From TrEMBL, chains A, B:
The lineage of its organism: Bacteria, Pseudomonadati, Pseudomonadota, Betaproteobacteria, Burkholderiales. Keywords: Lyase, Metal-binding. SUPFAM superfamilies: Chelatase (SSF53800). The keyword Protein biosynthesis does not apply. This is CbiX/SirB N-terminal domain-containing protein. InterPro entries: CbiX-like, Sirohydro_Cobaltochel/CbiX.
Amino acid sequence: MSSQGIVLFGHGARDPRWAEPFERLAARLRGAGESAPHVSLAFLELMTPPLDAAVAAQVAAGCTRVTVVPVFFGQGGHVRRDLPQLVDACRAAHPGVEIRCATAVGEDDGVLDAIARYCVDQLGSDA
Amino acid sequence: MSSQGIVLFGHGARDPRWAEPFERLAARLRGAGESAPHVSLAFLELMTPPLDAAVAAQVAAGCTRVTVVPVFFGQGGHVRRDLPQLVDACRAAHPGVEIRCATAVGEDDGVLDAIARYCVDQLGSDA
């Protein structure tokens, strides 16, 4: 398995069903075969594990590079203020590991295109 | 212009920059030319307008069918509990208008595929 890890970082919610798309996303990423990264979920609040625990588990599993992807639509306070502090704490805890942080998924053009297609499909349906 | 309206319903956040992807999504949907639906944003909290105001504005603009698309990743309490009540109130206020509600965008396979692609791209980059 790859020495790369990816942590899908979401807000968290009280209803456990909220996490289902995150689980499906993780399963897609794990399906890449030999080259698949280690994939973990982590949450800001209301769900576990928190980011530090998810990163520590990836490091313990041998990851030398961990990429945190904020599964948020926009770059609000959670992504701009809370997440950098959490990532810095992870870097301090694992100085030999490269820990990177991506931009929120909702800022990606490909993701926005897919959401726009979904919206148009909803209009066309008479169901 | 179409008599169809679409309302992109998001959670809302304190940081106004959080709404940027929603604005970009709305712009994409408005770019469909003559057949473009009326497109509005609405928010559960922390941002305006609320859903009832957005729907009322679409009805005032001549929409006879309004589709509410929850721009949420998962179907948690906000989508399962809060939103149906808000939509029911809109239906009661506009009995001659068909008001429909889609599933959260994060439940769509095409959206999840796009997010997965974005995640893989982050791994491959050395930036």
